[in-house]
Write a structure and sequence with these properties.
globular, 13-stranded mixed sheet, 252 residues, alpha+beta, MacB_PCD, ABC transporter permease, 26% strand
């Protein structure tokens, strides 16, 4: 459990490590095919949503892009939303959704207790089936939440336990990036490979939390061949990116 007194030091250390990691990954990845190989890549579990859900996100080398301190190239911002329909048409894809993802340097607190090792996700109503998540208590994110930019949040059970212990979380307030959000639902963790707490907010509230416009990631479920479905989605997303780009969508 982290405390606010340690948060500033954590930001500096995390930013330094991320910058070094991006540089190293880019230097060693210059000769790579940047995710356009003809071979199927094994779907790697980054423990965001677990092995049963594929996540495809913009990366530089092996490091997922972090937009907490720099804006994305404008042409990359709408890609996931623009191409999600085409991704869903793949026969092996059962569900797919575009979503915002912030894992580095997040600030989620209940009082002095902070969420450690978790992620904040900006989602639409289609995200829940695409991520294999089911609401166990309260409700999920609704179209009304999105249209009205309501500051509501859905937690997974691990985030709820970390922040609220055994207490009831529904109806309580959270501070996300200094803004108050009300907890309206809890989703279960059915895939044991999914580690860490998840905080889901309406994607329309993302500009209230973070400074820059940024590209979305894609989450998807497959009927029977997750690897093939994820590779297909990765190819579609990268088909719209210039050959000169240093960032590409990559299966996480």
């Amino acid at each position: 459990m982290k405390k606010k007194s340690k948060f500033a030091a954590g930001i500096f250390a995390g930013a330094f490590v991320l910058a070094v990691s991006c540089f190293i990954a880019f230097e060693f990845g210059k000769g790579s095919d940047k995710g356009k190989s003809g071979e199927l890549e094994e779907v790697q579990n980054e423990s965001i949503l677990g092995e049963e859900t594929a996540v495809i996100a913009l990366s530089e080398g092996e490091v997922r892009c972090d937009f907490s301190s720099a804006a994305a190239v404008p042409s990359l911002v709408p890609l996931a939303d623009f191409l999600i329909k085409e991704i869903k048409e793949e026969e092996n894809v059962s569900e797919a959704a575009a979503f915002y993802l912030r894992k580095e340097e997040i600030s989620v607190y209940r009082g002095l207790d902070g969420l450690a090792g978790g992620s904040v996700l900006g989602v639409g109503t289609d995200f829940f089936p695409a991520a294999g998540l089911m609401v166990e208590k309260g409700r999920g994110i609704t179209e009304k939440d999105i249209l009205e930019q309501k500051r509501v949040a859905v937690l997974n059970d691990r985030a709820a336990m970390q922040l609220f212990y055994e207490k009831e979380a529904i109806g309580e307030a959270l501070e996300i990036e200094g803004k108050l959000f009300q907890v309206v639902g809890i989703v279960g963790t059915y895939d044991e490979t999914q580690l860490g707490g998840l905080v889901l907010v309406p994607d329309s509230t993302w500009p209230q939390l973070y400074q820059y416009e940024e590209p979305k990631a894609v989450a998807l479920q497959s009927k029977n061949e997750l690897q093939k479905a994820a590779d297909h989605a990765e190819r579609i997303l990268n088909s719209m990116i210039s050959e000169e780009s240093t960032v590409w969508y990559k299966i996480q």
